[in-house]
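User: Please predict structures.

Assistant: First:
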Amino acid sequence: MIIPVRCFTCGKPLGHLYAVFKQRVLAGEHPGKVLDDLGLVRYCCRRTLMAHVEWIDDVLIYEKR
């Protein structure tokens, strides 16, 4: 839904890195290289960014009853 502010496992701040990660991957760079450049070496942090799916726009179209 919304990008986590911190890694669920180790607690490293990640929220500020997602926009850069997404922009560079959409530009055609390899995700692994982007994560290396951002300084994410722990696999828990890498998993958090790579596995994130933005569903917030799809969820917001439904009304709450």
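Second:
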Amino acid sequence: MPPAPNRQSRPPKTPDKAKETAIMRLISALLIVLAGLFYVAWPAWSAYQLKLALESGDVAGVERGIDFPSVRQSLRPAATAAIEQNLKEATKGTPGSDLLIEKMSKDTLPKLVETSLDTILTPQAIIRMHAEGKSLRDLIKSVKAGGPDLMGQVGGLVRDLFGKKPAADPPPASPPADAAAAPIVPESRRLGLGNIKSAGFDGPTSIYLGLARDAAATGPDLTATMSFTGTGWRVTGLVPRI
């Protein structure tokens, strides 16, 4: 019979080595648990609290859950694109409309965008939008900007440039001035896990959620970013699909 292969047996682990391995495994497990709490449980709880605030018309709760200055920054491109489209429709058929749009883009459009964001980015407006089943995309597209409205701005420039003023649309309704005016969200329009269409990391301390108003939709209508702001997780970005 051929000789048995010479197998070198591994030396048994010393007590110190085994203890070190156990400690490393424990530390790894703790890090995984802490990461789960920080990136999953905490933002999920914050999102749930914001959901309850939206559904109950809790203005203070919405203010706690949304970082409005950061959200304003994220919404500015979408608001600019929507108002530019409204501007093109308002000046359609007007002689020299390209010149008019160019002038408004430089002189008036930034003010219109900021006025529009002032109108839609309030806790009361967000609560009412959610209660009425409207999307942020539709709300942005419908805004003409208040005081003076878009058509008033267009009319003034058309009159100055061409001596002609297009017919003005009636100004849109203003959002409610207080929390009592905001309706409670009906059961049929409350959000659940089925409304989440995508999720992932948007940075070391940021995550994103793709949300759809209709749970049966295949893709999101809105991408919401949540970030850790030092004291908790808050919504810091909203980007509607325009």
